[in-house]
Amino acid sequence: MFTALKGKILYKIWLAINEMPYWFVAQWQLYRLKVILKIASDFVGMYQDQFGKSGLGKIKPGNLQDLERFPIITKSMIKSYPPESIILKSSDNLFYERANICTVCRSNGEPFRFWIDKNFCRMTGALLGKIGFRDIDLNFERALFVSREAQPLFLSKNLLVLPSADLKSNAADFVKSVVDFNPRFVFFSDRGAMAMFEAAFAEYRLSERLNLKAVFVFWPNLSVEERLKSKAVFGCDVFLSLYHVFHEIPLLGWECEAHNGFHLNRESYILEIVDEKGLNLPPGKEGRIAVTNFDNEIMPFVRYHTGDRGYFLEKPCSCGRRSPIFKVTSKYPKDLLLGGKKFDYNEIETVFRYYYSIVDRFRVEPIDNDTVKIHITPLKNWSEDFNAYLNESLTKLFGDSVKIEFIIDAQTQQYN
Ligand SMILES: [Zn+2]
């Protein structure tokens, strides 16, 4: 009950700040930016080094535009520092009480480890029911979360998480669990998980047994045809959101009922669209997505390039909400057909995320129906032995009939 009340209060604050006039939001963001920059420059080695190199020292921004003077941080750059330099220096127990370690690999092929503040996790958990501005009350309504990496668990009494791998290995049991639970809302960790559920939904005629109100998927974009197809299968509206709650930049934005881009979560983030030099681009111009987050004090993200590209829309959303809207243009790789079976890219990423300390990035190149080339840019710790481990993990996924060739690029000289 307390959590639900706290969630409601958090949402009211969130909504209030996001819908305030620009001058107020700018003041709020400037205050929070100063706090996170102070933490980064006083307690995080990588930022001390990077800010020092940029001649910024202990600069205090006088306005939001000053942020443009700070360097862009990439995953490769973060990996080039030893782990103790990318997180808060702390000698007390605070760090261990508040830090969660996670690994992630999105479709840009960059496995990555990060630390997240548990306080921030609680906040994103409370906002989960608000995606798409639906204001779902998880005290009374049930939601299912079909996720790539999770084990089956109840996050709360009305929020059940089921791993998408179970849907692939034993669809009948998975469907039975879903029908027994009888959710009104379904969240998907990615497009691949949603596609699998769509297939099961049609095969087991779930439209006759479930009455869904809305479906949410953590994904950058859907074509008009894809969205129409999903809506027709589920019999309800489909909302996109970015990024996944288990990722390093959770809930950066989400669609409203107009489905014309993501409303930016200004309470937690500053989003910049920048060119290759890190300079801001005007609305309508496409560039690199760089995000500054205010809430993760354990591992601050300041002007962090998520690996995706996008642009701000020039006009406010037709729904009337004040928060700016942006679109993501990155095209995530499509499904692979190997050995007569279909694999979605997220399945391959799930293997690679555990190799974050030896793989800087990877790329999958299907050659024919039975052969696939895996290009790897290794990190310093890479050794030939990992070829065998990776081969074993990927053979388990693809099956014995698929031939896997590894192409190892020139080794990068990096830590971690
Ligand atoms: Zn809108």
UniProtKB/TrEMBL annotation:
Gene3D superfamilies: N-terminal domain of ligase-like. Signal peptide: none annotated. InterPro entries: ANL_N_sf, CapK_Type1_Caps_Biosynth. This is AMP-dependent synthetase/ligase domain-containing protein.
